[in-house]
Amino acid sequence: MKVFVTGHNGYIGAHLVGLLQDAGHTVTGCDINLFEGCAWDPYPKPENELIKDVREVTQAELEGHDCVMQLAAISNDPMGNVNPDLTYSINREASIRLAKLAKAAGVGRYLFASSCSTYGKGETLDLDENATLNPITAYAHSKIDTEKAVAELADENFTPAYLRNATAYGYSPMLRIDLVANNLLGCAFARGDIRIMSDGSPWRPLIHCRDIARAFVAFLEAPKEAIHNMAINIGANKENFQVKDVADIVKDLIPSADIVYTGEVGADPRNYRVNFDLLYKQLPEFKLAYSLRSGMEELFEKYKEHNFDQADFDGDQFVRLRTLQHRLHLIE
What we know:
Shape: globular
Number of strands: 12
Largest sheet: 7 strands, parallel
Oligomer: single chain
Order of helices and strands: EHEEHEHHEHEEHEEHHEEHEHHHH
Strand content: 15-25%
Helix content: 25-40%
Radius of gyration: 19 Å
Number of helices: 13
């Protein structure tokens, strides 16, 4: 199949392109290259590449594709809060516009990278897809608004689906350390301590970034009836952890690092433990390739291989927010 991937040069996209090609698909990538120069390792490139803003994609550029995968976004809560209007412009308006263009171009499937952050301050534990959405950030609101608007476009010829991804972590050629597991391990490796800014109690569902990419491939190849116009949590029940549990794994990997609770943010209001039963009901052959421990072990080896140090930890290259603040003028 021919697949149009936005954000193909991002943290997840750097895995997704190669996985699609390995499965025999042809990829068109579209990325504004906002984070050019931030790569850690080389990664596969698509057969066709558009270097442009997702807000400027045309219907003609989508024609002939079987699926659009919309990953391009202002990609987490802190970044979204820097400029909420920009977050809505890219994460919501552009995503809805892209879905409409895809449908008009005859693209049969539209896969949207949503997020478990839509559950926000979870009212209960083990939240499934029918749980109350309780967003507390512009990023989360943008995901919910897009799901609702795109759902109205679904018909017998157009199948959207919404992958509510758990919190990503793990090695990528486009490494990010502004993610809780990557950050705690990077801090321990580079600084010698494990710094937790909350009290360590909030729950997070965690998933390796490559497993998110694998889920997109699975949704591409799934029968229409398995995913048609459905929001589905992407992760695994056993991969829900409290932040302090993540710190314990880091401590196992780097015993010399002390766990430090800084108390900078107090009690983190983002607290959600998520149920993933629907994913395995609808796609029974899909399984995660990583557990948190195996993914952290892999990343630990990569930190060693790259001689990751405090300059890396404190610099801009691996922290999207810092790079974005220098380059906002490119997308405003």
